[in-house]
Design brief:
Blueprint lengths: L5 E4 L18 E6 L4 H4 L6 E5 L4 H10 L5 E4 L4 H10 L4 E4 L7
Parallel strand pairs: 2-3, 4-5
Antiparallel strand pairs: 1-2
């Protein structure tokens, strides 16, 4: 929020019964993110979805490939050709096409 992102779903301050001193993060969705923001540059361990927008498919592919973590990404599109291009040109561990990242 301090850097301009929007917390669409806030998972901070979650408490879990039986663990009053626990350190938990609930489901969180962060939108309006740009690559220069801390939430994008630093890996977050927890149920946190960081959402970025790009102007076009080439920019989206470059954005994904420039991220040092490369854990996973997804794209939402009506174009089978765009989906194929995205899937084949990105370098990540998990890819979702019109679905969030698949979880094993």
């Amino acid at each position: 929020e301090k850097e301009g992102a929007t917390i669409l779903l806030d998972g901070r301050n979650v408490t879990v019964d039986g663990y009053p001193d626990g350190n938990f993060v609930g489901p969180t969705i962060i939108t309006d993110v740009t690559p220069d923001m801390t939430c994008y540059k630093e890996e977050i361990f927890g149920p946190v979805l960081v959402c970025l927008k790009s102007e076009n498919l080439s920019d989206a592919i470059q954005l994904v490939n420039n991220n040092p973590w490369g854990n996973g990404t997804c794209v939402f599109t009506n174009s089978g050709a765009a989906a194929r291009k995205f899937q084949h040109e990105i370098d990540v561990g998990q890819v979702g096409i019109n679905v969030p990242i698949p979880v094993p």
